[in-house]
Amino acid sequence: MQSFFQETNKPDHKINLAKASLIYAKYQYPRLDIQDYLMTLDIIFQRIKDELGKEVYPLKVIKTINKYLFKELGFKGNKDNYYDPDNSYLNQVIDKKTGIPITLSVIYLEIAKRLDFPMVGIGMPGHFLIRPEFENVGIFVDVFNQGEILFKEDCELKLKEIYQQPITLEEHFLTPVSNQQILGRMLTNLKYIYLNRQEYPKMLRIIELLLQLFPNHPLEIRDRGLLYYQLRQWEKATTDLQLYLSILPTAEDAPTIRQILQQMR
C-alpha cells in the first residue's frame, strides 16, 4: 500500500485528494480497495459529463453536478449523527452517501477536477465550502446542504447561524485552502472525535498522520506527548513534551507541561 507520506509529500497541486483520503481510511478499514473507490468517482464523473453535453458554463456545471450527486445518487449531509467518525472516512461517505461538509466537498472537488472545472476549498470557520476558481465569480457552493449556491452575504448569515451570534465575515475566512490543509482539517476532525470518545490508540494514529502532513508541528507533538502520558508511555511522553518546550519555551501552557514532566521524573 502506498503510504500517506508518499502521497502527500509532493507539490500541493499534485496531491491526489481522494487517494490520500482513502489511504488514511485504509488504516481504519484494511480491506478497503482504493482503486475501487477511485473508479466509483470516475463513473460518477462520466455520467455527469454525458449529462452536461457540449455547452458548458459555470452555473450549468454546478447545477448538473448537484442534480446527479444529490437528486439521483442521494448524497446528503449527515445532520443526525454529525460526529460519527465514518463521516470523515471517504470510503464510508461514498458507501453511505452521507458525510460532513469537508468530506462531501472532497467528492465534489474530485468530480469538478475530472471535468476540468477548477474549484477550490474554502475553510470558513465552522463550515467548509467550495467555490469555482474563476476571477470575480462571486459564488460559493455548500455541499453539506445539497449544493446550495451562496453569495458572500449568505456566508456571513451562515456564520451567524452556526455561532448563534453576530459575526463579521472577515476576508480571510473565504481564502482558498490547499490540499494539505483540507487533509489536515479532515484528520483534525477525527482527532477530536476520538479524543471525546476516549479512543486513544485511534487518536494516536491520527496524530501520527498529521505529523506526516506537518512535520514538527509543535501542537501535534505536544498532543502526542500528552497522549503518551495518558497511555503511561513515560519515555515517549517525555521525549515529545521536552521537544515541544524546546520549540515553544514560552508557550502559555509551558508551566503545565513542565509540571507533567516533573511528575514523570
Automatic annotation (TrEMBL):
Family that this chain belongs to: Belongs to the UPF0162 family.
Pfam families noted in UniProt: TPR_9, Transglut_core2
InterPro entries: SirB1_N, TPR-like_helical_dom_sf
Organism superkingdom: Bacteria
The protein's name in its UniProt record: Similar to Uncharacterized conserved protein
Residue span, Protein SirB1 N-terminal domain: 36-187
Cited Gene3D superfamilies: Tetratricopeptide repeat domain (1.25.40.10)
